[in-house]
Design a protein that fits this description.
The complex is a heterotrimer of chains A (359), B (296) and C (274). Chain A is of the alpha+beta class. Chain A is built from 8 helices and 20 strands. In chain B, strands 1-2 form a two-stranded antiparallel ribbon. Chain B has a domain at 68-255: MetI-like fold (Orthogonal Bundle), CATH 1.10.3720.10. The chains are: A alpha+beta (359), B mainly alpha (296), C mainly alpha (274). At the B-C interface, helix 1, helix 3, helix 4, helix 5 and helix 6 of B face helix 1, helix 4, helix 5, helix 6 and helix 7 of C.
Chain lengths: 359, 296, 274
Amino acid sequence: MATVTLTNIEKKYGAVRAVEHFDLEVNDGEFLVLLGPSGCGKSTTLRMIAGLESITAGDLLIGGKRMNEVEPKDRGVAMVFQSYALYPHKTVFDNMATALKLQRVPKDEIKRRVGEAATLLSLTELLDRKPAALSGGQRQRVAIGRAIVRTPEVFLFDEPLSNLDAKLRVRMRMELQELHRRLGVTSVYVTHDQVEAMTLADRIVVMDSGRIAQVGTPRDVYERPATEFVAGFIGSPAMNFIPLRREGSAWKAEDGTIAFDTLPFDTTGCDRVILGIRPEHIEIGAASETAANAYPARVRLAELHGADALLDLTVGCVQMLARVGGADHPTEGTELSMVIPPRLMHAFDPATGKALPQG
Amino acid sequence: MKLASALDRRRHLTGYAFVTPTILVIVAILVYPVIQSVVLSFGQSSIDGSTGYTFVGLKHYASLMENERFWNALTVTLIFTVLTIPLELALGIGLALILNEHFKGKGLARLAVLFPWALPTALNTLMWRWMYNADFGLFNAVALQTGIADKPINWLGDPTLAMLSMVIVAVWKTSSFMALIILAGLQSIPKDLYEAGRMDGMTRWQEFREITLPLLKGPILVALVIRSMDALRTFELPYNLTDGGPVTATESLSLYAYKVIFDFIDFNFGAAVVVIQFLVIFALSLVYILALRPKD
Amino acid sequence: MKTRPRIGLYLLVALSVVISFLPIVWLILTSMKTTAGIYAWPPQYIPSPFTLENYIKILRDSPELLLYVLNSFIVGVGCTAVTLGIGGLAGYALSRLRLKYAAALMVAILAVSMFPPVSLLPSLFQNFLEAGLLNTYQGLILAHTGLFLPFAVWMLASYFATLPTEIEEAAKMDGMGTLRIFLTVVIPLSWPGFVATGLIVFIFSWNEFPLALVLMSQNAMRTAPVGISLYPGEYAFPWETISTATVIAIVPILIITAIFQKQIVGGLTAGAVK
């Protein structure tokens, strides 16, 4: 097991910078998730750790040793690919044994290690089959087994669950959690699925356009997003954003329907802010409600999702999404009042996108 | 540019090592000989290159310009190309449209189309030469027996008929190649385009004009380029069908160059002929690319 | 569109099939006639009597005709093997190893493939004469390899480009070097591409004429198309022998084409559509 240290890592393709200013320390035994939309550089970063992409600038250390120029096989890392990448012409056993054979591990030893991994992943019955004869979940387990038998210092996962159907994905996610608990190997996991990230990660690295937007625990990135991008990316449905303008001492939306006398943020030097509120944090009440921060709203659309319902609200000229309980949810056309609880609000500087500190 | 990473350097090194044998063979067989041909065409030397090479400048080209047989060969080649390509294209499109329909025995039909292409041109030509045979050939047998002709037609002995006979063999052999490429193009056109067309009320002819033809432009261009190259360098067809005759009525540039080099044993003059042929082919491919390039 | 034009369609199909097969069928019929039958009037459309005498005579009296077929076979197999070997490596490097000049090399390879073979003849003949490669198998194999490598590189490169990259990356993580990945992972995954390319290259080589004519001038070294074309000398054609020899020489190609028509058509057309 080992730490992984990335110092000022940069990747350029010609003039295009895919990743830049990337500084990160992955702790020994940690499960770290790289999260972001497609094209944000998360896979490139993982592939640089693996050695499948060269590093343009910066230093990569695994277990304290500089690995920039080291061939993938000598880095002590194993990788699980999105499409599983099993050799279609080899049996499950041979798929798992290939790396060991190439390292000239003795036959008995190979047999023992593959056997152990197979037991761990309940693949023992399938060792003689070819990948084509396996289900998606079984293939995924073989891909994981192939990584395990090498007893690597670091596991790398490149969107390993995205080819599975929804049900299987949930189960494999839990198996991965269980596996990590048992083996405790440092893991770097790339995904664009925030549920995977939230459930698996010790820490999440949210990436945006080749840079780190925020590093933190799942709770951190959800409750205290560092930028407007993180706030909008984490959480589903996405956070509502309302641009506000300073008018005297008060803050008002475009047409003045939404207005705050004060904001609980340090707004020194700003005359515009972007206010963020998650759909699940909006409260709704009767139209007669007169609490502070209550605004008259109209339900433009209501969607029942089962346990809860999504309301598309019109407040003046502002559109907001609210998530409410599914039972007896307000129907389309209902007039009601929408309450924004101040302690659950976020605010961002429109110029930098950075979150404003609580004031 | 220097590669920053040793990983990239190793990958590139392996990559270029993989490419090297191919490059060597291509240079030895294709590139270097063409350069040598150009050099030969500007000089005077012995067949085996044993006596020294003297530079004579444009002498061979100058005498080419005054050589009637060369101009004849060039004209024959161009006429042959101009006659065969449109016929092949039209037949190719027709055959492709037929093969794109669903019917019983489609496999056999596709095989039938493939055979003429797959067999050696030299031997195809012999088969046709036998059918064209004035005394014992199939065509004259049928023509005489049905009364279409009252005396044997001299298919390969009359200058005009010989050219037409040669064109027929070429079209027979290569319409199939056109058809296969165009068929693949047809099959890559999404079906829902036609369904959308039908919803818009297109007739079948409009479908062909508005959907099929524009989307076939790429495959047609490729087929045209490949076939024109072939037609401009046609060699074994006249060699085996007529030996360029009667007299020189079907003598193509390639055949003429071959005769200059190996019958008259004049490598330098022959080299000048092949260089000109090379330039003609090069010019034509440029014309195609410019004419059919997609307009923005 | 439903049923009415069907008859017309079938007539067109039948016509195409008849025209395509006519010369071949007529040739086969000729080869099964007696010499008298070939030159008879009124003409025999159906051989009477049917005879295999011409075949027996060739096998007995003209071993060189069989030798031509053997030569074509040796050159075809040799050229195909070498072309697939080095063309496979090059195609792999050009489509997968992200070489800086890959695109330029591919275009250059395509451009040189347009050179007319006859333009190679004067210098190729001299070079082969000097190198002692005239009238040798390795000589014509080398020449054909050069001629058909561009096609093979393009076809194989475009085939490799359709394979998922992750398996090769997994192999790299497993510790394989590039050559081992090519040999043990890429080749097993891309054999359909190799089969199609190999078949077409073999047919190209079998059919090639001008280089075979010039570089194999000794009777015993001639390939089938050249040997049969030159068989009788300039004018008097013994058609019973020519037709029979031609049938023998085209049978291998007919069989290959019939069995592998899907692969051949797929391979031929893959590049043009993309």
